């Protein structure tokens, strides 16, 4: 496994985001760190993917075709209560509340970074634990922080 990644339990991660660029980046970061990844382009594809044995985490955002993202979270968690669900959120209190009420087990704030996504995976080892929040991205030396 690359980059000193932690041991894996054989689980799979499903990435479901409306933005193709975000889907691709998150999938690349996860694969590069040694995770098995399924990229879903809509709620129907995610529904099929999370039904497969070994799927343990869904990373999604709020706005999805054809269902609203939080409705997708609610539906998938009702079928798979053991499924970890990380919702990408803007940082607004309303986003966090809605995500948690819908069944999110973790939150990750925009703008997404490789470090935040990998930290998210480390924090979601137990889908039944309290919702985790991925750490804030730290500005790199010589770069001003950006707002999302």
Explain this structure:
With 148 residues, the chain is α/β, with parallel strands linked by helices. 35% of the residues lie in helices and 20% in strands. It has a six-stranded parallel beta sheet with strand order 2-1-3-4-5-6, with helices on both faces. Helix 3 links the parallel strand 3 (55-61) and strand 4. Residues 1-8, 126-131 and 143-148 have low confidence and may be disordered. InterPro entries: Bact_response_regulator, CheY-like_superfamily, Sig_transdc_resp-reg_receiver. Pfam families: Response_reg. This is Response regulator. Keywords: Phosphoprotein, Transcription, Transcription regulation.
Write the topology of this structure.
Blueprint: E1 12-16, H1 20-32, E2 36-40, H2 43-50, E3 55-61, H3 69-79, E4 84-89, H4 93-102, E5 106-109, H5 114-123, E6 132-133
Parallel strand pairs: 1-2, 1-3, 3-4, 4-5, 5-6
